Each structure stands twice: as structure tokens, then as C-alpha cells.
């Protein structure tokens, strides 16, 4: 249980920028431990993006529950948010001195591009896992096995529709995505 708590604590500590910034850490956990599979991770992200709550918390709750039940869910979730709470408490104690600190300003200037890189990397990983079947391609060696044709067609159609109709409400997009996922068992 300590390993679960430590891994989610690290994810919470280094994933600056929100939910998708935790994806590289979650993906590493998926590969390193048997807490959840890559497919379960993608499903958790899909559900987390369409429900209230942060991706990291939802995944921590799921992984903790899967491995150690309710206690694991609570401890994994608390471990994920603990670094943010600690940092906020430290900053709130010395807010005035931080406000005009050149070191802090420089630190945030450095963190912003790193956060953007984490989020971009997470987005690319989700896209690759969703649209390509690398495992099947590695087994068969057939180029066409690399592509998940139905998912790519749906993705391209969504892009075309979103490009043409820019004012579609996000809830409608999420609902259509959920229906397509259920119908096509994506």
C-alpha cells in the first residue's frame, strides 16, 4: 500500500498543470505495476473528461480501489493531492515575500513551458493509444494492422464537424462521443 501512496504522491508532486499532466506518470504506473491496464487508463481518462472531478483523482480512486478496496481509493487520492496541499500551505505562509520574488517569477517562467510539454506529450500518447494498435503491428508486422481504422474515421469526422461548426456545445460533443463509444464498443 505504501508503494501505491508513494507513486500517486510523486504524480501529484510533479504533474504541474492539471489532469492531463498526470498522464505520463499514470502511464508509467500502468506499465510498471498491475494496478490498471493501458486500456483501463484510456477508459478512465474518457470517463474523467466527461464527468466532474479531476483525471488524477478519478484514476487514483480507481487504481486504489482495484488494488486495496475503499482504503486504497482514499489513500491513493489523498496521496495525489497531498503535494498540492503542502505547497499551498507553504506559499500561503510567505505569500508576501513570494509575491515580489525574482526567483519565484523565474521559476514560473520555467514551469510554464514544461507544463505545456507534459500536456502535449500526454495528448499525443492518448492519441497514439486511441488511434493506433502498436502491439498488433509488432506481433504481425503488417503495416495496416497499425491503424485502428474505425477510430481514425470517427476522429477525422469529428475534426471536420468541429472545424465547420465551431459553436457546438461541449456537452453535445461529449454525448455524441459517448454514444459512438457505446455503439461501436470503442
From TrEMBL:
It is found in: Cell membrane. GO terms for molecular function: chromate transmembrane transporter activity. The chain crosses the membrane at residues 7-26, 67-92, 113-137, 143-161, 168-184. GO terms for cellular component: plasma membrane. This is Chromate transporter. The keyword DNA-binding does not apply. InterPro entries: CHR_Transporter, Chromate_transpt. Belongs to the chromate ion transporter (CHR) (TC 2.A.51) family. It is a multi-pass membrane protein. Keywords: Cell membrane, Membrane, Transmembrane, Transmembrane helix.
